[in-house]
Amino acid sequence: MSRLPSWFVTSLILLLTTTAWAQADMDEVKPPSWQVQRSFGQLTQNRDLMLRGVKNTQVVSFALRRDRIAENGELVLAYTPSPALLPELSHLRVYLNEVLMDTLVITKGEPGRQVEKRVRLDPRLVTDFNQVRIEFVGHYTDICEDPAHSALWLNLAKNSRIALTEQALALTNDLSHFPRPFFDTSDNERLHLNMVLPGDPGVPELQSAGVLASYFGSLAGWRGTGFAVSYDQLPPVSGDEPPARILVLAANDNRPAFMADEKQYPPVESAEVRLMDHPDSPYSKILLVQGKGDNELARAVRALALGGKLLRGERAVIEEAQPLAPRKPYDAPNWTPTDRPVRFAELVEYPGQLQASGLIPDPIELRVRLPPDLFVWQNKGIPLQTRYRYTAPTANDDSRLNISINGEFIGSLPLTGERDSQLEKLRLAVTSNETANARDQLMVPSLKIGASNTIRYDFSFATTFGSAQPDRCQTTLVVDSRAVIDENSMIDFSGYHHFMAMPDLAAFVRSGFPFSRMADLSDTLVLMPAAPTPMQTGLMLDTLAHIAAQTGYPAMALQITQDPDVLSGSDADLLVFGRLPDHLEQEPGAGLQQPADWLLQAANASPVQTRAPARLEHTSFDAGARVTVSAKGPLAAVVGMESPYTPGRSLVALLGNQEQDYALLRQTLQDEGRLNDISGSVALLRESGVNSQLVGEQYYIGHLPWWVKLWYLLAPQPVLLAVLAVLSTLLLAVLLWRSLRWLAHRRDVHGVD
Questions:
Q1: Burial 557-573 (b: 16+ CB within 10 A, else e)
Q2: Is 131 found in the same domain as 53?
Q3: Residue 326 domain-assigned?
Q4: Measured between alpha carbons, how far is 482 from 393 in angstroms, rounded to an integer?
Q5: Do 529 and 613 fall into the same domain?
Q6: Does residue 638 contact residue 690 with C-beta atoms inside 8 Å?
Q7: Residues 13 and 116 in one domain
Q8: How far is it, in rounded angstroms, from Cα 393 to Cα 397?
Q9: What is d(CA 442, CA 426) in angstroms, rounded to the nearest whole number?
Q10: 180 located within any domain
Q11: For residue 597, how many other CB atoms are within 10 A of its CB?
Q12: Are 713 and 698 in contact (CB under 8 A)?
């Protein structure tokens, strides 16, 4: 055997070495991937879906961020077919983005029982917006079948799910895509961001962080936002989890410790925004917001909060960020205007929202968000003008358009054979919720109209099918009925006053009120502890993001202080985090006397010493009872009261004593169920749930004409109202009698006839 040439051996060794190095590099930068499962309950309305003979299609939508791709996909269907279905003939068709994925035949033994089957979804078809369409083809007999027969049904369980293996995409560091990858409209999950601040953040850093957090909160909207705050150090990243999205705020004289290397993180000469990779992973991104000083840092944050439309490249220098014009009260972008009629076109959230089709069309729904202090007590109704078009029925039958708001029926309109568009002017009757107990007068505007409302239109087309009798079998092709609510339809909330009984913590957690009255929070002053922990700072950021999600606007005029003495000289609504200042707890006019002070002590003291009855469910308190408790476990409180410094201004405090207390507050802000339990003036938070109470004196904000306000305040007191009416009548009678006596005396003296 001849010996191999040396040049060949050398080339072979070089080739093998290069291949090994390349393989090692590939292993090192392998994109992270992870499993994601979304149930139908999460993607739809948290209920089972019903397929019928005449409404045999259900569509479930899901999204995928644009910085990810799907490696694998699977649909797990749990369904129960009607026991009357014929096996083998009845089946389901499953489509992904209008491409048939599989056909699921209902076999013998399945009707009447819950079945779970899996369908592979082609990952190549998965995009940023996707639809899984499930069609039911059911048969209960082989002759003279009635498509509207009650035996034709199949129930899709809400625990059916879509499972994807998602993989991160490598992104270039280009700011022109901002706010991606930190926020992606295709992502329907809660927005999770990391915020890195210097080890001892002062007011400028906290204020800039608050503005930036509120900006992302306004983008996330209904998704919700959560911030993981760390000081000095970048959060670690893992290849088994989605890439981290990190926001870093730094000024030249106050930088996080990880930026100590000035070659890698050079100081800046002005305001600058930089997009870069995480040192441990090119798939995790860092948005580095820097300023030469505090003013430049605030300028860079303002530029981002304005949308960052002019940003591009890896690094952008912010030369100027003009201040915005002052906002007006109640002009939040997410709130329906209350100073003029509003066209439905302004309320539309997605294309096709005002259209419906099919024999049993899906309802058409519109969301109307209103300020919680809109005063609609004892009014003639809210004008609603509805224009609509529809496929004319072949005969004037029982086809109807039913209108409801917040689940309550408003009216019904006939759908006749006339083809002209219809205009119906209705007045949405509203009813008030006053009682004789002044403590219960939280001034919820009405039973039908609240802070968040849904107007629903249900088109119901009555249709006669062909006969299904064995001796006379006829087939009728079902008409594809269509209906449209015209975008020029209007609803008018103008002419109503703004007036509300306070405190009302329900308005705070649902609408951010009263702070959201000014969308930019220009009438808000935030008090933070002198040395806030990352958990306390995260609570502030979560709260500001929550308020901005309700208004749809960042807190561009946010003011933060760490000096409690500043509160006394401010004409603003106060938002307090951590603990109430000592002088405020002892302030005679602070409204903290019995029976409210025991809850404040419960949130601020350890061990807990409270004055309270044994049962927290009662709203009447015995000031003489005293209970001393020493216990471990998270305990926090949300307290609302009138500002002790400025009449008509409000103070809301999120109180805690330990880190676990603030963690409980943050969990509550992100739990829709717990938020619904917060109301009144004091809410005590424990692991077991939320106890809300209305304690202390109420006060009123807003303006009403004096006669309307007097009538409203006296309405819950019928006896007092009757007494005042009698006294007024007597006073009027006395005045009239005195006037007649004076006229008679004048006539006698002057001889006037």
A1: bbbbbbebeebeebebb
A2: yes
A3: no
A4: 11
A5: yes
A6: no
A7: no
A8: 8
A9: 28
A10: yes
A11: 20
A12: no
Query: Minimal CA–CA distance to 389: which of 432, 426, 418?
Result: 418
- Indicate whether 70 and 110 sit together in one domain: yes
* Total tally of structural domains belonging to the chain: 6
pLDDT value of residue 455: 87
Amino acid 731: pLDDT = 82
Cβ 402 vs Cβ 363: under 8 Å = no
Structural domain includes residue 298: yes
Q: Which of 140, 168, 196 is the last residue of a domain?
A: 168
Q: Quick count: other Cβ atoms within 10 Å of Cβ 417?
A: 11
The answer on 191 and 123 residing in a single domain is: no
Asked whether 558 and 521 are in contact (CB, 8 A), the reply is yes
Are the C-beta atoms of residues 698 and 712 closer than 8 Å to each other? no
Cα separation of 446 and 434, whole Å?
A: 9
Q: What is the pLDDT of residue 611?
A: 34
CATH number at residue 107: 2.60.120.260
Per the CB < 8 A criterion, the answer to whether 621 and 695 are in contact is: yes
Average pLDDT, rounded, for the chain: 81
| pTM attached to this predicted model | 0.83
Residues 40, 22 share a domain: no
- Measured distance CA(405)–CA(368) in Å, rounded: 10
**Residue 371 · residue 517 · CB < 8 Å:** yes
**pLDDT above 60 (res 440):** no
User: Which residues is 149 bridged to in the sheet?
Assistant: none
Structural domain of 725: 717-750
Phi then psi for residue 522, to 5 deg, are -70, -15
Q: Are 334 and 456 in contact (CB under 8 A)?
A: no
Q: Is residue 710 part of a domain?
A: no
Q: What is the pLDDT of residues 27-59, one digit of tens each?
A: 456 788 889 999 998 888 788 999 998 888 999
pLDDT at 116 over 90: yes
Please state, in angstroms and rounded to a whole number, the distance separating the CA atoms of residues 467 and 47. Answer: 34
131-162 residue pLDDT tens: 999 999 999 888 778 787 888 999 999 999 99
Angle in degrees, CA 666, 670, 675, rounded to 5: 100
What is the distance of C-alpha 127 from the center of its chain?
A: 25
Mean pLDDT on 417-423:
52
Co-location of 24 and 52 in the same domain = no
Nearest to 644 by CA among 696, 607, 601: 696
State whether 161 and 247 are in the same domain: no
Q: At what angle do helices 718-750 and 706-714 cross, to 10 degrees?
A: 130
pLDDT digits (tens, 9 = 90+) for 339-374: 889 999 999 988 889 998 877 888 999 999 989 888
Judge whether 227 and 538 are in contact, CB under 8 Å: yes
The β-bridge partners of 640 are: 652
219-254 burial: b if 16+ Cβ within 10 Å, else e: bbeeebbbbebbbeebeebeeeebbbbbbbbbbbeb
The CATH number of whichever domain residue 272 belongs to comes to 3.30.379.10
Of 318, 333, 351, which residue is a domain's last?
318
Nearest to 623 by CA among 598, 605, 587, 652: 598
- Strand 650-655 to 573-578 pairing: parallel
